[in-house]
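ok new one. same drill as before - structure tokens go in, u give me an amino acid for every spot. 247 of them this time. try not to just spam alanines like last time pls lmao
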């Protein structure tokens, strides 16, 4: 358990894990989502969390929607439970904490979904996922990403209206698919498929809302299977614009 998670918070986390197993009558709602603009769905998960596989599956389904930017961020604070998550990254734990701080909270848990950097909920409840995506506001503006050469990404940013503060631009490098067999821990004996696991989080600059094109050199980075760009207020606040590229 992470040293900043109190015993009381641990109790809440366990309770959330139990509740996340509840079925939802709207289990088919994800199949009928009609989205006019991009939606960013982040799942904070762990291979060491026995309550997380249903949420991992839901994220995998969402990733196939052309308008959904689905990202799995594997946290580190469950790595002491006899299995170290092979996809876990310290920046994922920090990102989840910063989201909690934006809400005036210190409570973190898995599986947690965050939509557009604002709404958060238990990620294994299919009906809740569909509801939050359907009512997510405001609509995000699309960011276009192209790989113009082997080591170059071109990012086209739209013009924003009434943007008073610079937005943080994040480039997320992710692995589109990963299958892991667990030899120990809470998921011992299981083989689980993971989707869009973020391996690198890179702050690539700030954006004041003007329409422009950025060129990023990624030739010295470990090749990724996909990229996402998120433009966020206050670094980890609401997401204003986003885009994805699957190689």
């Amino acid at each position: 358990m992470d040293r900043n998670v109190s015993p009381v918070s641990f109790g809440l986390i366990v309770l959330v894990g139990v509740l996340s197993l509840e079925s939802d009558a709207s289990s088919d709602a994800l199949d009928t989502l009609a989205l006019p603009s991009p939606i960013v769905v982040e799942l904070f998960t762990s291979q060491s969390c026995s309550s997380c596989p249903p949420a991992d599956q839901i994220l995998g389904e969402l990733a196939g929607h052309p308008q959904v930017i689905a990202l799995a961020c594997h946290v580190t604070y469950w790595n002491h439970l006899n299995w170290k998550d092979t996809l876990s990254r310290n920046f994922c734990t920090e990102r989840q904490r910063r989201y909690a701080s934006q809400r005036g909270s210190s409570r973190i848990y898995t599986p947690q979904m965050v939509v557009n950097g604002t709404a958060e909920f238990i990620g294994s409840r299919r009906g809740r996922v569909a509801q939050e995506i359907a009512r997510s506001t405001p609509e995000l503006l699309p960011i276009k990403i192209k790989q113009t050469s082997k080591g170059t990404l071109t990012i086209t940013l739209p013009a924003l209206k009434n943007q008073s503060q610079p937005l943080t631009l994040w480039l997320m490098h992710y692995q589109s698919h990963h299958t892991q067999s667990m030899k120990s821990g809470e998921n011992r004996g299981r083989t689980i498929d993971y989707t869009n696991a973020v391996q690198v989080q890179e702050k690539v600059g700030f954006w004041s809302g003007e329409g422009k094109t950025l060129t990023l050199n990624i030739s010295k980075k470990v090749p990724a299977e996909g990229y996402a760009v998120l433009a966020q207020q206050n670094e980890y606040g609401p997401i204003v614009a986003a885009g994805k590229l699957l190689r």
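Residues 7-19 form the longest helix (13 residues). and btw Confidence is low (pLDDT under 50) at residues 1-27.
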